[in-house]
Write a structure and sequence with these properties.
Layout: H1 3-16, H2 21-28, H3 32-39, H4 50-57, H5 61-66, H6 86-126, E1 134-136, E2 144-146, E3 151-158, E4 162-168, H7 172-183, E5 187-191, E6 194-199, E7 204-211, E8 220-228
Antiparallel strand pairs: 1-2, 3-4, 4-8, 5-6, 6-7, 7-8
Helix pairs in contact: 2-3
Length: about 240
């Protein structure tokens, strides 16, 4: 059963009857899109529409399923038993099974996708920075550091000085600009050749804030080093 051939045949017969897709759809009680899908070879009519479609286009059921006119003329109503072959019925049955299987596979993939996305979304919502733009230290109530949105807080470690690590979907250049603008709002001071940034309101010092420019693909790593209070030692 050649789906493309049947579609072209339906289109040809419709035009021979001087019918538009809309008129044929109205005659069958279906949408224009269904007729368009038939004629484009993307789908076949439902079996319940075979006889109404044949009556409207003045063709036999055998001609419809073969996608071409026959030299013999078979009565269409009532439909004789020999008007459609066993092979054609088997072909159409296989087509219906394939279409049903595709629908099941598609729906299974959709369900699997959403089931996979739900825990990911929950994790992102629970993360302290991904949908926000401020990192709050677990170790000091007064440490609040601005971070780019879409930056996932991985971990924070340290004893007297602390290092926070983030994974970000933002591009390197974009994050570099963000860091420069944020640090420009803090009090900058030098210790030797090293630059520190002090936040007078919250009383903490940032001594490292950078993005790893060797990120894999579109995921990069942001590193922040900070200390509670005014800090002027080199790390």
């Amino acid at each position: 059963m050649d789906q493309q051939k049947i579609g072209r045949f339906i289109s040809q017969c419709r035009k021979e009857k001087s019918l538009t897709q809309e008129q044929l759809a109205q005659a069958l009680g279906i949408s224009n899109r269904s007729v368009s899908r038939w004629e484009n070879g993307n789908n076949l009519p439902d079996v319940s529409l075979f006889q109404p479609l044949c009556d409207t286009l003045d063709i036999t059921l055998e001609e419809l399923l073969d996608g071409e006119r026959k030299n013999i003329s078979l009565p269409k109503d009532p439909l004789p038993a020999h008007a459609i072959s066993e092979t054609q019925l088997q072909d159409y049955a296989r087509y219906l099974k394939r279409r049903s299987r595709r629908k099941v596979v598609f729906l299974s993939l959709v369900v699997a996708f959403f089931m996979a996305m739900v825990p990911i979304f929950v994790i992102l919502v629970a993360n302290k920075t991904f949908f926000g733009n401020t990192y709050h230290s677990d170790f000091h109530d007064n440490v609040y550091i601005q971070v780019p949105t879409w930056s996932f807080h991985r971990k924070t470690g340290g004893l007297e000085t602390y290092y926070a690590t983030f994974k970000t979907l933002r591009q390197n250049d974009e994050v570099d600009v963000f860091i420069d603008r944020y640090l420009a709002t803090l009090e900058e001071f030098q210790v030797g050749e090293h630059t520190y940034y002090y936040h007078p309101t919250y009383d903490f010092t940032i001594f490292r804030y950078r993005i790893n420019n060797d990120g894999i693909g579109f995921v990069n790593t942001i590193y922040i080093g900070y200390h509670d209070g005014y800090f002027d030692e080199i790390y």
